[in-house]
Amino acid sequence: MANDFYIKYLPVVDSTNNYLRYEREGLLSEAGDAKIIAVYAGEQTSGRGQRGNVWYSAGDENLLLSLLVRPGAVTVKEQFYLSQAIALAVNDAMHACGVNSVIKWPNDIYVGNRKLAGILVELDYAGDMIDCAIVGVGINVNQSQFPAMDKIPTSLFLLTGKDFDIEIVLKSLLTSFQYYYNMLENGETLKIAAEYKKYLVGYGKMLRYRDTFSIFNAVVKDVEGDGVLCLERESGELSRYYFKEVELLL
């Protein structure tokens, strides 16, 4: 793993994603031949989540990580396979910690109806190819108290009663991501998609969803390479949704 990752720790930063974006050229120079740059922090003052949400984290209690990758052979239409790869890596790391987590489309990690980890993927394009991806990961590790919020969070500590070494969780995640990222580089996208569906909430199971017009029951039939969620309603009608267009009601 040492040759594939350049790893940097920051005690405090506004956002690890922002740091990678603004310090990208210097980090690429520091990283040398490393394929992936990983920056993690003890504390974020302006952490960001999906849908423009703030990612709240107590200092030095959680894994706050961003990865810089340049998946040269991945097209815009295949971009979601990278998101699947990191979701699987985080999910694998949670299982290694003794927690039976699942993936909630597009890439949140849940246990029951509680969110354990979130992922934010920011992409830069070169024509119809992905030039660069900055992948932010926030995992609630040892935090035991959270502010009031709509989606109730949880942590590895709350789920297991154990304190975890954050660096061990990090190494587990990176080892797993390396495995799936190698698949991506080798064009084994169907393998990634099949593994993703194994842990995807609602795949082959009737659950409740809400879109702009109604609340309805549906089964996940597929997730396309660009991230579109395909739902089959009770009536047999097939509906396709882009990110933010539909919500699973847990």
Outline the structure in words:
It is a single chain. Helix content is 27%, strand content 32%. It is an alpha+beta fold and 250 residues long. The chain folds into two domains: 5-199, 2-Layer Sandwich (BirA Bifunctional Protein, domain 2), CATH 3.30.930.10; 207-248, SH3 type barrels (Roll). The strands form two sheets. Strands 1-2-3-7-6-5-4 form a seven-stranded mixed β-sheet, with helices on both faces. A hairpin with a 3-residue loop joins β4 and β5 (108-111). The longest helix has 20 residues, at 166-185. The radius of gyration is 18 Å and the shape is globular. The model has no long low-confidence stretch (mean pLDDT 92).
Shape: globular
Helicity level? 25-40%
Q: Briefly note the CATH topology name of the largest domain.
A: BirA Bifunctional Protein, domain 2
| Element string (H = helix, E = strand) | EHHEEHEEEEHHHEEEEE
**Biggest sheet layout:** 7 strands, mixed
In total, the number of domains comes to 2
The number of helical segments is 6
What descriptive keywords fit this protein?
SH3 type barrels; five-stranded antiparallel beta sheet; 2 domains; seven-stranded mixed beta sheet; single chain; 250 residues; alpha+beta; 6 helices; 32% strand; BirA Bifunctional Protein, domain 2
